[in-house]
Amino acid sequence: MTSELVSPRKRDEKPARELSPEQAAAAAMVAEAKARGLALTGPDGLLKLFTKNVLETALNEEMTEHLGHEKRQADPSRESTNVRNGSRPKTVLSDAAGEVRIDVPRDRESTFEPQIVKKRQRRLADVDEIVLSLYAKGMTTGEISAHFNEIYGASVSKETISRITDKVIAEMQEWCNRPLDAVYAAVFIDAIHVKVRDGQVANRPVYAAIGVTVDGRKDVLGLWMGVGGEGAKFWMSVLIDLKNRGVRDVFFLVCDGLKGLPETVVNVWPQTIVQTCIVHLIRNTFRLVARQNWDAVKRDVKPIYTAPNSDAALAALNALEEKWGNKYGAVIRLWRNAWEEFVPFLDYDIEIRRMICSTNAIESLNARYRRAVRARGHFPTEQAAMKCLYLVTRSLDPTGTGRARWTMRWKPVINAFAITFGDRWPGAETY
């Protein structure tokens, strides 16, 4: 009785799930690795074996397509006499499996041009991308070489790494000279300093500019290496370069209060409004105030930059001077010297105020630059410094999520700009 009850259940059991071709191939590889006592990972593990088999299979398929027939299956009546002629060993570098030794098929007439691993190619493409990514994060060529040796058990010389990074120089020059939009809602400018060893190590300013397009996108407009300290004279050449690349109008140019810059901007874009960074003004204010007075001064400064108009802001500044002028005269002088570049944003919508009152847009970019620069210490040449900063720029926000958030945040501002600057706003067909 018991056996009769059990038998039907056995007959009703579901058949084993069929594996897909990919799963079957992977299962076969795992079985082979176990039979040969191979680990799944490591210098001589399954991953390296799998990479070798995939590359060799692809190369053999390319050879079949080149010759027009499978191995030992040539048509006797064919016109060509070209056939397979053995193989030659080659070692390539992969980021996943390190150094992989493969056999590349040859043909008798030496006309075969492999594509997946081309002639004289020693690195798979993903290795170059890893090198560029590590270099952008500030690692030196020696550190990258040691990283590959430690992680992948592969030998990559410092000279090879330098050659990989040098490939981006032409790309960088093309990027620096690319055409730009005709109109930008705002341009944020700032400079950082890097150490360059040119005979002796010296600080060199690198000028950066971010533009906000009329559809709310953020665009790094360029990088320029200067000499000496940051100055309005060099900014003049930067702005002229932007104009020569197609920028004919900018509504707001936001900076950190550099002396002489407003006159420079007027010479390039007469209608552009120069706005000093309010955050810098506030930060510099508290550098001049004793710690015990911070809270009181903070309460008295806030009515200035939150005023509904410039007249109310001036009244708040006069009240600040009456209360603190004797004790902190430098604070009052700081605000009055920056007044012409401080007040413009008070004439505009709250959405515009919120976005143009600070250079935070470019400060976050500079923070990424400084992180890479600090990791390097100093650079042997100006080109090496610019190459590193360009790679940092190129690696920004690869997923696009930050770009999407930025654009959404700027949409209300762009609407306000379109109304406020309607006479200068470009037609929809031009952007």
- Tell the overall outline: elongated
Beta percentage is: 15-25%
Biggest sheet: strand arrangement = 5-4-3-6-7
The computed structural class is: alpha/beta
Figure out the total of helices: 18
How much is the average pLDDT?
79
Number of strands: 7
Q: For the terminal residues, how far apart are their CA atoms?
A: 83 Å
Q: Roughly what percent helix? A: 40-55%
Q: What's the order of the H and E elements?
A: HHHEEHHHHEEEHEHEHHHHHHHHH
Task: Summarize the structure in short.
With 431 residues, the protein is of the alpha/beta class.
General description of the model:
The chain is an alpha/beta fold and 431 residues long. Helices cover 51% and strands 16% of the residues. The chain is built from 18 helices and seven strands. It has a five-stranded mixed beta sheet, sandwiched between helices. A two-stranded antiparallel sheet has the order 1-2. Helix 5 crosses helix 6. The longest helix is centred in the N-terminal third of the chain and has 22 residues. The chain is elongated, with a radius of gyration of 32 Å. The N and C termini lie far apart (83 Å).
